[in-house]
Amino acid sequence: MRLIKRRQVAAKLAACIDSTYERQNPNSKYYDPEFPKEISMSPTSRGRYFIEEEVDAYIALKAARRDQLPANPRVRRSPRRPKPDAAGADTGPSP
Questions:
Q1: Per residue in 22-79, pLDDT tens?
Q2: What is the domain count for the chain?
Q3: pTM above the 0.70 mark?
Q4: Phi and psi dihedrals of 39, rounded to 5?
Q5: Do strands 39-40 and 48-51 pair parallel, antiparallel, or not at all (unpaired)?
Q6: Which run of H or E residues covers position 3?
Q7: What pLDDT does 19 receive?
């Protein structure tokens, strides 16, 4: 069993450190109850760690769910409006 710090968890998820806090916060819209829980080595210790195997299992779970979802059809977007020509652009009132 290997313990890793939050920075390492964020690196494994290819996310920022703040997003790991958001996934643990029940008041956040990004809360994920399946996200691994932190552990502390002692009651007075400020250091918090994650169990690497739990983080890896979380990533595997997300990948397995992704593979089970049906493919999303491509969203058809309306064509972009053409940009105004720089030569014919109205630059304001003429002097």
A1: 999 999 999 999 999 999 888 877 788 999 999 999 999 999 888 776 666 665 666 6
A2: 1
A3: no
A4: -130, 155
A5: antiparallel
A6: strand 3-4
A7: 94
State residue 40 phi and psi, 5-degree precision.
Answer: -120, 145
Half-sphere exposure of 94 (CA within 13 A, CB side): 2
Amino acid symbol at 21: Y
Token pair recorded at residue 29: 């819209």
**Cα–Cα dist 31/26, whole Å:** 5
- Provide the token pair at 66: 């992704």
Residue 20, domain extent = 3-67
Q: Is residue 90 in a domain?
A: no
Q: 12 in a domain, yes or no?
A: yes
Total Cβ atoms within 10 A of residue 55: 19
Nearest to 7 by CA among 28, 42, 38: 38
